[in-house]
Amino acid sequence: AAQPPQPTARSAKPVKLGAVQSVSASSSFGPGNTDVPVTISVLHFRDRIRPTDGALPLAPASHWASAEVRVCRPKPVVLGYPAWVLGDDSGRTSQVTKILHPGFPQPAFPNASKRVGCAQGWVTWVTQDVLHATQVRFEQTRDVPGAWRLR
């Protein structure tokens, strides 16, 4: 039997590091669950971060990677744990680590900031060694921004 056509996946063209994109960030925390217009950018990327004390992730065959990001917002929006996603061209992904370590690149991005204006800092992922990071995506939105290409 013939299969009905499948909907095409929503996607946007990849962008270079430093490119600024405008989206509506979904504010799932707080009253009203409203979307907030924001501009977002991934500025720099560092793979295989190792704090000076030699701390390693607990998961075997994994490492840390970090990206410096910038978000500008006209009103408060709290970014959740899965806002920034690190990925590769094979579809593997990593989410931001919940571990805070003073040896990670600083300053850390203030996800929970309720202030307006621009915030800039580093997000860090714990990722499997088999993931060869090629992109960072912002996923706390109903929009489809392009992934920032790392290579």
Strand line-up in the sheet with most strands? 1-9-8-5-6
* Succession of helices and strands: EEEEEEEEE
Shape: globular
* Rg, Å, rounded: 16 Å
Largest sheet: 5 strands, mixed
Strand content: 35-45%
Please bin the fraction of helical residues: under 10%
Instruction: Please work out how many helical segments DSSP would assign.
Output: 0
Span between N and C termini?
A: 43 Å
Structural class from helices and strands? Answer: mainly beta
Tell me how many strands there are.
9
Low-confidence stretches: 1-8
The overall pLDDT average reads 87
Description:
- The structure is a single chain.
- The protein is mainly β and 151 residues long.
- 0% of the residues lie in helices and 40% in strands.
- The chain contains no helices and 9 strands.
- The strands form 2 sheets. It has a 5-stranded mixed sheet, with no helix packed on it.
- A hairpin with a 5-residue loop joins strand 5 (84-87) and strand 6 (93-95).
- The protein is globular and about 40 Å long.
- The model is unreliable at 1-8 (pLDDT under 50).
Topology:
Elements: E1 15-16, E2 20-26, E3 35-49, E4 62-73, E5 84-87, E6 93-95, E7 117-128, E8 135-138, E9 148-149
In short:
The chain is mainly β and 151 residues long. 0% of the residues lie in helices and 40% in strands.
